[in-house]
Amino acid sequence: MSAIGVALLAALISWAVFMRWVFGDTPHWAEELPQFVLIWMAMLSAVWCSRRNSHLTAGLLGLWLHSAAARRVVDKLVDLILVIAMLMLVKAGWDLAMLTMKQHTPALQWPVGLLYLSVPVSCSAIALVHLGKLLSFRSTTTDE
């Protein structure tokens, strides 16, 4: 997912630079379209990271909690907190997206709310991922 987004972003920016230097004319979408791609790519990649449990962590939990059972309890608590936080972000992101849906970007004339819509979409998916982990009886941590 991220690789596709990065490749698309590189292609868009390369084309814009090529057009600017070779033809002296920058495409009208040269700033806005890469912003849309970058924001949506980052937000959707966060869902993938949540699913794979690959976010950057300090790894201190294993130093403090030696019991696998205690780590599972803390993991479930973290999943619960994340579900609640993501649901709050879904509501806030949806409200902001709807508030800005009638405003349009200068170059592409796309609704600004499309950018903000990435928040409720990705946060809904993250909430579902963590709800699944919360309801799962399987441990998400590795026992050493």
From TrEMBL:
Compartments reported by the entry: Cell inner membrane
Entry similarity comment: Belongs to the TRAP transporter small permease family.
Transmembrane segments: 34-50, 77-94, 114-131
Pfam entry (one): DctQ
UniProt keyword annotation of Cytoplasm present: no
Keyword annotations from UniProtKB, A to Z: Cell inner membrane, Cell membrane, Membrane, Transmembrane, Transmembrane helix, Transport
Domain Tripartite ATP-independent periplasmic transporters DctQ component: 10-136
Record-linked InterPro entries: DctQ, TRAP_DctQ
Main location: membrane
Assembly, per entry: The complex comprises the extracytoplasmic solute receptor protein and the two transmembrane proteins.
Membrane in keyword set: yes
Protein species of origin: Marinobacterium rhizophilum
The name this protein goes by in its record: TRAP transporter small permease protein
Reported function: Part of the tripartite ATP-independent periplasmic (TRAP) transport system.
Membrane-related topology note: Multi-pass membrane protein
